User: Which sequence fits this backbone?
């Protein structure tokens, strides 16, 4: 009805007379393209480029690779070189040191300066005095400058003391039981000097000497001394570390600076930055190669199982269950022996192979699940009706639609692989000492997390940055590759 | 449905048998044995011990004896804890690990689905960024670091407020479960968040959701009935094995929080080469895992009607 | 839920020290592997057994040997006699008799028991023959004369026999009770009988142990503690420290990384030399570079244990290794190391290189092939191994490969002699230098490097056969000298443990051998 009404009003328009129209010339008009034709991949690449976060992550990854490959050429420090004078030093730690003579055993103790009043006392007098009533220990002083090479203390003897215990504290003691670290005892009441060599660091410390009785119990007499310890280094050691030019000599007591370690040193005095660079190679290689390989295998396995279905699917999935249930550690040990890795050799390839063999089932199961869903979609049936073969269907239609899940798994597998490598290096697989890897550096850094956080922080930071970069990239890739997003951006 | 379940159970039994055999062979192939100790033994004492435990018999005989016992449900006596039967060990410690594991998975599952959905809905806005950062931290920092930090934090908090808000370690009450379950579930939660997000993003942009929106359905209904239900499939796939993995991987958390679970035995048994405990825990977990997978497969069919497997 | 009720009662956030109820709460490393005293000597089991049971003799709060179940004893060259006190009772009220010791000791040597520590009974007549299955168990050289007298016959004089009596292998077991448990002896708190200061009232495996004061113990008046509660089973050092910080346990070892904090918190840090010696052991088998004495001497002069302890290990209390014999061993009249001080020498790089060149010439090698270092199984030993690797490379140009293995694989390698150098240690079985001295005797199963020297064996035999403390001390002194001259091993360190105790209690005893830590003598601080 509406049509008739419209045509009636049009036909009655005076402009629309029969002679008002002329036939058009026929033209062959090819469909003009408004923009260049893009293939799936070109389109994906364009969209990826437009995604700022993905580009950022690409830059991070490139920076990481440069760090790994070119870093050691710029920062030429041996990652395995130990420096026991700079153990666990934080970045920015005190670097100046004074030159001292090489360590020599402490000489004989001279007779005490003040003629002991005690030694002049009649023996009977000191016998009748109970040890706890005797006069306190006196004269605690440094025998020489306190340096990180040694701290030498001496004090006056005390009647009734069978032994002396020496303590060191970071804070001032407030009474018995708060003296701090028990460094040791002198061994007898006659010995009234002590040399401290234990883990000496620059700074201010409180040394205490406590008298002990014959049964090894502590007496109330004690004395405390505040000591400032300075960094020290011998001429030979300085020359060894190239802090002074060869042949150059310096006076004792003059200053020299320790080598700079921009990221500090680890528990054996090795440069963190150099170790991070070395570790990058190992961790990135294992962390990328292994996941890529086992995810790839998982994709193939899972899609075949999911697509074929039926008995074959059941069999394949049961085999996957079997692999997952095997005790990981036990089989890793087995692989280590099977691959014949010798002691102290780096077994990186066997490690990757072993990880691939044991870790593919999770991906396979995920992919299979996705395939099962996608298999029933309308377009799959349509494609099949059009004559598409199985392989084409799987590759061209199904897998791109499972990309999301695959990418997530991949990006999660990376830190997992890094930490698994760290865990396994403790059974002798993976890298051998002294080669570093980020995972093993993190492991070692945990122990001193509270006192020297930089040992954990830097490798963990590296791992986090890598993971972040791959995650963002994964996100971007998924957005780019997802055909349904095409018209949305 | 019933015949399918039955078929799967039989398959499961065969799988477990394969697992047991492979583990048995691997165990004996590795150098070392349960009897050796830091202090060496004289040959006579060693001989006595081997006879007592039947380790002097040929391997095939040991295998048959073990399988025979296994069929009867007898998992033997532990080599390291000399007076405990492996059955008792599992019976007494598995419930602890299971409780911890289930709480962790519930936490991970709920948190993962929720956060994943949120990041998908608010894509590229601030909730997405914040959650992303937390997720990155969650997977790039190993669990033992979290456990140590969490425990330290509890100590400081308890010290600051003057009484024990949450116990620092130990087991036995509901308050003992909270911290360990949180730490344990963190890694899995991060993974599930990402999975869910990726899955959701695909669903949201799909045609039937567009249709539903166009039809004018209330957003909550679209969210729950359509988006969630479809997006949750990968999460479900992962959940089954995740439960199994969490219960075995709870080793670190059990150590740090002094929890009497089974995870510790699992790892220590391999280190001590305690044959019976290795076999017992592996077989038990294998069976548990297989059961979980069967449940998940059944759940698939329930959630996604298109996937009713024949 | 059974899972939760497991270890129930442990949850009430208790204090580590509860002065009102006189209860102490502590943590334990693992579930005790074996509470049948005749079968085990591991430290966890010894800790529990040392509190709930008692042997003929015991160690007091000053680690001195004093009367236990026996109130009189007499040790001669040919044997020993012990008289059981009248008031020694089992926790079920029946008296402890000499028969209980006979039954227990026979059980130890019985080959059917397959006790790992049967060879500690070797000094007793016929013990070794019985254990090899050659003669019946009843021929063991121990008899009960009536209920209250125990007689023992020796194979040869044993100067340290009294020390052994405090060891859990020699604890009594009552025969009728043992039989009544039907093969489940020591599997739960009910299947054990107690005669010590405490009795076990609760044992939830792997989760909770509770020991309460034993009202029938003959010396109960000195025991102030009413209960020792153990609801935490963990080996994690920071878990323990956190529990202590949170005031949940009364004692905790302090790890190196927590030392700074311990000082800042004002904790009373104590050091305890735990009696073990760690050393580098060489492989003296044919075909190994380390068989060459010059090579070993080169390493001896290159590796300085003082640096190792002070700069690498950095734990106060660890003593730089100087001798196989630790500092706490007794000599004839004074400590062994005072009568026979360890050999002092200067670590001289030049001399080390000289020795290395001599070794190369003797072996006919231009360069030494890579050395295999089998490292220990503690996190500390990996650190030390890396330090060795670097030092030997820098000083001697040697390539050292670190073979890191887990426990069992490492043991297998040691047994097979598959190493050049191994980092290992030894803890004493009894308080006499012989437990260290006989380690490198030819044929000793713990002589992993297969060292063999007639001179060494001769000195060991002197120490084994003599009862004169002066002669024995001299023999040990000689052994110390041989070890240095021949570089049999390189002592690394004597281990120590740092720990702290809740200030509300005193009298916690640390022992090298026996129940460690021992809470029997604890006193609560006055309010």
Assistant:
């Amino acid at each position: 009805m509406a049509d008739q009404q419209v045509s009636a009003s049009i036909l009655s328009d005076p402009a629309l007379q029969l002679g008002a129209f002329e036939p058009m010339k026929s033209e062959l008009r090819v469909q003009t393209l408004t923009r260049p034709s893009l293939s799936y991949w070109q389109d994906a690449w364009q969209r990826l480029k437009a995604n700022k976060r993905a580009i950022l992550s690409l830059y991070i990854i490139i920076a990481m690779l440069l760090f790994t490959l070119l870093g050691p050429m710029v920062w030429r420090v041996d990652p395995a070189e130990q420096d026991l004078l700079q153990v666990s030093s934080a970045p920015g730690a005190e670097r100046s040191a004074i030159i001292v003579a090489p360590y020599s055993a402490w000489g004989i103790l001279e007779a005490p300066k003040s003629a002991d009043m005690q030694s002049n006392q009649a023996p009977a007098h000191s016998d009748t005095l109970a040890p706890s009533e005797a006069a306190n220990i006196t004269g605690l002083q440094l025998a020489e400058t306190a340096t990180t090479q040694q701290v030498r203390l001496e004090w006056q003897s005390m009647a009734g003391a069978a032994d002396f215990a020496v303590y060191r504290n970071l804070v001032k003691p407030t009474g018995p039981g708060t003296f701090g670290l028990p460094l040791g005892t002198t061994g007898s009441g006659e010995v009234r000097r002590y040399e401290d060599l234990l883990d000496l660091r620059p700074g201010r410390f409180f040394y205490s000497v406590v008298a002990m009785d014959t049964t090894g119990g502590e007496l109330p007499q004690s004395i405390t001394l505040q000591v400032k310890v300075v960094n020290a280094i011998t001429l030979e050691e300085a020359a060894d570390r190239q802090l002074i030019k060869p042949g150059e000599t310096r006076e004792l007591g003059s200053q020299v600076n320790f080598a700079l370690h921009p990221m500090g040193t680890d528990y054996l005095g090795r440069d963190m930055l150099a170790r991070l660079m070395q570790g990058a190679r190992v961790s990135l290689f294992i962390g990328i190669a292994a996941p890529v390989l086992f995810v790839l295998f998982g994709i193939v396995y899972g899609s075949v199982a999911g697509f074929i279905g039926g008995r074959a699917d059941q069999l394949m999935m049961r085999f996957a269950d079997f692999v997952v249930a095997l005790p990981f550690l036990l089989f890793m040990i087995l692989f280590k022996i099977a691959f014949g890795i010798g002691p102290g050799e780096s077994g990186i390839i066997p490690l990757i192979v072993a990880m691939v063999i044991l870790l593919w089932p999770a991906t396979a199961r995920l992919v299979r699940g996705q395939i099962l869903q996608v298999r029933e979609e309308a377009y799959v049936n349509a494609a099949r009706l059009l004559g598409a073969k199985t392989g084409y269907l799987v590759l061209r239609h199904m897998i791109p639609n499972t990309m999301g899940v695959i990418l997530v798994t991949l990006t999660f597998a990376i830190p997992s692989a890094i930490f698994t490598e760290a865990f396994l290096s403790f059974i002798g697989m993976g890298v051998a000492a002294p080669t570093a890897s980020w995972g093993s550096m993190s492991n070692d850094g945990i122990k001193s997390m509270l006192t020297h956080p930089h040992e954990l922080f830097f490798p963990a930071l590296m791992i986090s940055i890598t993971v972040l970069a791959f995650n963002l990239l994964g996100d971007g890739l998924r957005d780019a590759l997802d055909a349904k997003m095409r018209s949305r951006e | 449905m019933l015949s399918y379940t039955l078929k799967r159970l039989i398959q499961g039994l065969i799988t477990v048998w394969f697992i047991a055999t492979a583990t048995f062979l691997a165990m004996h192939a590795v150098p070392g044995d349960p009897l050796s100790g830091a202090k060496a033994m004289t040959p006579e004492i060693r001989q006595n011990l081997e006879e007592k435990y039947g380790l002097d018999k040929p391997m095939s005989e040991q295998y048959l004896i073990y399988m025979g016992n296994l069929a009867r449900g007898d998992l033997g006596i532990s080599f390291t804890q000399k007076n405990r039967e492996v059955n008792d060990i599992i019976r007494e410690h598995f419930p602890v690990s299971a409780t911890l594991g289930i709480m962790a998975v519930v936490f991970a599952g709920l948190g993962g689905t929720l956060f994943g959905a949120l990041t998908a809905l608010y894509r590229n806005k601030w909730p997405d960024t914040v959650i992303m950062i937390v997720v990155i931290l969650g997977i790039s920092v190993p669990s033992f670091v979290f456990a140590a930090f969490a425990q330290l934090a509890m100590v400081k908090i308890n010290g600051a407020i003057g009484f024990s808000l949450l116990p620092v370690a130990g087991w036995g009450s509901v308050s003992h479960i909270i911290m360990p379950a949180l730490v344990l579930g963190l890694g899995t939660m991060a993974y599930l968040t990402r999975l869910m997000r990726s899955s959701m993003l695909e669903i949201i942009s799909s045609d039937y959701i567009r249709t539903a929106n166009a039809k004018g359905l209330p957003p909550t209904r679209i969210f729950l009935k359509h988006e969630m239900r479809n997006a949750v499939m990968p999460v479900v796939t992962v959940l089954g094995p995740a439960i199994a993995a969490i219960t075995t991987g709870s080793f670190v958390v059990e150590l740090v929080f002094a929890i009497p679970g089974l995870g510790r035995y699992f790892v220590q048994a391999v280190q001590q080469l305690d044959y019976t405990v290795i076999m017992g825990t592996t077989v038990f977990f294998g069976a548990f895992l297989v059961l979980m997978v069967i449940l998940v497969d059944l759940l698939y069919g329930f959630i996604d009607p298109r996937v009713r497997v024949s | 839920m059974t899972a939760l009720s497991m270890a129930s009662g442990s949850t009430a956030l208790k204090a580590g020290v509860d002065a009102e109820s006189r209860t102490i709460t502590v943590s334990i490393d693992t579930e005790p592997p074996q509470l049948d005293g005749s079968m085990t000597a591991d430290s966890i089991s010894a800790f529990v057994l040392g509190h709930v049971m008692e042997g003929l003799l015991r160690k007091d709060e000053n680690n001195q040997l004093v009367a236990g179940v026996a109130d009189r004893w007499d040790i001669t060259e040919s044997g020993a006699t012990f008289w059981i006190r009248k008031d020694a009772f089992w926790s079920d009220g029946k008296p402890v008799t000499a028969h209980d010791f006979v039954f227990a000791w026979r059980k130890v040597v019985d080959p059917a028991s397959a006790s790992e520590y049967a060879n500690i009974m070797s000094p007793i007549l016929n013990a070794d023959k019985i254990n090899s299955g050659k003669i019946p168990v009843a021929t063991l050289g121990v008899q009960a004369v009536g209920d209250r007298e125990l007689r023992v016959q020796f194979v040869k004089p044993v100067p340290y026999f009294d020390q052994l009596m405090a060891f859990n292998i020699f604890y009594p077991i009552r025969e009728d009770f043992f039989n009544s448990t039907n093969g489940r002896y020591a599997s739960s708190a009910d299947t054990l009988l107690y005669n010590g200061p405490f009795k076990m009232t609760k044992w939830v495996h792997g989760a909770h142990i509770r020991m309460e004061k034993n009202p029938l113990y003959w010396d109960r008046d000195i025991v102030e503690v009413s209960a020792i509660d153990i609801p935490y089973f963990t080996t994690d050092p920071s878990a323990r420290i956190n529990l202590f910080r949170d005031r949940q346990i009364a004692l905790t070892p302090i790890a190196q990384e927590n030392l700074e904090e311990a000082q800042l918190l004002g904790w009373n840090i104590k050091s305890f030399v735990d009696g073990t010696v760690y050393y580098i052991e060489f492989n003296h088998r044919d075909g190994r570079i380390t068989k060459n004495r010059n090579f070993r001497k080169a390493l001896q002069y290159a590796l300085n244990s003082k640096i190792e302890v002070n700069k690498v290990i950095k734990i106060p209390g660890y003593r730089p290794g100087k001798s196989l014999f630790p500092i706490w061993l007794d000599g004839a009249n004074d400590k062994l190391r005072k009568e026979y001080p360890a050999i002092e020498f200067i670590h001289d790089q030049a001399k080390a290189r000289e020795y290395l060149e001599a070794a190369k010439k003797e072996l006919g090698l231009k360069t030494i092939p890579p050395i295999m270092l089998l490292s220990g199984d503690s996190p500390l030993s990996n650190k030390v191994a890396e330090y060795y690797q670097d030092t030997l490379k820098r000083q001697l140009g040697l390539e050292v490969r670190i073979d890191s293995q887990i426990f069992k694989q490492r043991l297998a390698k040691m047994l097979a002699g598959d190493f050049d150098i191994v980092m290992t240690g030894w803890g004493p079985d009894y308080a006499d230098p012989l437990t260290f001295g006989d380690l490198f005797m030819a044929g000793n199963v713990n002589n992993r490097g297969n060292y063999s020297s007639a001179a060494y064996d001769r000195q060991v035999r002197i120490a084994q056969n003599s009862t004169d403390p002066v002669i024995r001390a001299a023999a040990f002194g000689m052994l110390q000298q041989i070890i240095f001259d021949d570089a049999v091993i390189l002592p690394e360190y004597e281990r120590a443990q740092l720990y702290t105790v809740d200030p509300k209690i005193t009298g916690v005893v640390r022992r090298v051998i026996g129940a460690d830590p021992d809470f029997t003598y604890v006193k609560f601080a006055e309010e």
